[in-house]
Design a protein that fits this description.
By secondary structure, this protein is of the alpha+beta class. It contains three helices and five strands. It has helices spanning 4-15, 21-42, 92-98, and strands spanning 44-47, 51-58, 64-67, 74-77, 83-90. Helix 1 packs across helix 2 (21-42).
């Protein structure tokens, strides 16, 4: 799947006319909205049978000196602000389906 439209069409084809494209699109959009809300609230969202999304807080780092491993010249690594990143961890069922 490359795009959202292709994903929607694949789900419609899989359901064999039980759902329309409009229904599938609405379900996907509400799943995303619920996921965003849950991530903001608790920092964790699970799509059963697929993946667990987790917000990880990265602390700020100070500016530091180092050595460029290619040129062996001293250099300064810039400071980074504190930030939040999102990680997706596949659940066991998803791992087993690939293996």
């Amino acid at each position: 799947m490359q795009t959202k439209a292709e994903l929607i069409q694949a789900i419609v084809d899989q359901m064999s006319d039980a759902l329309t494209r409009k229904d599938v699109k609405a379900v996907l959009e509400s799943l995303a909205a619920v996921g965003y809300k849950q991530l903001k609230k608790s920092g964790e969202f699970v799509v059963p049978g697929f993946a667990k999304f987790v917000v990880i807080k990265k602390p700020a780092t100070k500016e530091r000196k180092g050595i460029n491993p290619f040129t062996k010249e001293p250099m300064v690594f810039k400071a980074k602000a504190a930030r939040k990143i999102l990680r997706a961890r596949p659940v066991k069922a998803a791992k087993d389906s690939v293996a």
